[in-house]
Amino acid sequence: MIAGALQPTPLAAWLVPDEEERGRVLTDVAKIWVEHALFFGDVYVTTDLAAAAVCFHRLRPLPPPVKYTTRLATAAGPHAERFLALDDIIASSQPAHAHYHLAYLAVRPTHQRSGRGRALMTHVRNRTYRLDLPSCTVALPPGQHLLAQVGYDTTQSTVQPSTGVTMHPMSRSPRQRSGARSPSVTRSKEAKP
To answer: Residue 63 is part of a domain; what is its CATH number?
Structure first.
């Protein structure tokens, strides 16, 4: 699901220029991060499996995924360097203090603009209230409006890893409240990317 949502974006085209390889590579790399979140964060999915959020508890520095360099090289092949560059961009946008990191928000392309992403983010936002942690993410332009609706603000300058690829570091305070939890969202420890 994560790969399918990311695949048509300029970021995905920059990460994996070869369209025929893109879906497989994105899926394989997403699997690494979803597995890592099962140990160091949360994976949320809507009950119909149309949307997912992958988050990390960054209460202290986290170790990289198990055998990350080797696994990334296997998953991404010649595109691994771009994924490492993306990792650096994301790491440089993370605050030094404890926070909840929204790593992925994905909605199947056939279900986008159906309210599932907002329901999922309302649920994730309410989780951060209980944790009393600020949260942060790096958003692509299509997701920026949705994240603003649930209290995220642009916090740093826009990042452009390549021409036509724009990313926006965003954060929200745990005190910014609006909306209620959606009953259609569940926390999963067996999510599939």
So the answer is: 3.40.630.30
* 14-22 mean pLDDT: 97
Cβ-contact 43, 34 below 8 angstroms: yes
Q: Which domain holds residue 68?
A: 2-186
Q: Is residue 178 part of a domain?
A: yes
Whether the CB-CB separation of 151 and 180 falls below 8 Å is answered with: no
Q: Could you read off the pLDDT of 122-170 as tens digits, one per residue?
A: 998 888 888 888 999 999 998 999 999 999 999 778 899 988 899 999 9
Say what the pTM is. Answer: 0.87
Q: Write the DSSP assignment of the chain as a string of letters.
A: -HHHHHTTSHHHHHH---HHHHHHHHHHHHHHHHHHHHHHEEEEEETTSSEEEEEEEESSPPPPSTTHHHHHHHHHGGGHHHHHHHHHHHHHHS-SS-EEEEEEEEE-GGGTTSSHHHHHHHHHHHHHHHHT--EEEEE-HHHHHHHHHTT-EE-S--EEEETTEEEEEEEE-TT---S---TTEEEESS---
120: exposed, middle or buried (Cβ count in 10 Å: 0-12, 13-18, 19+): buried
- Domain assignment present for residue 83? The answer is yes
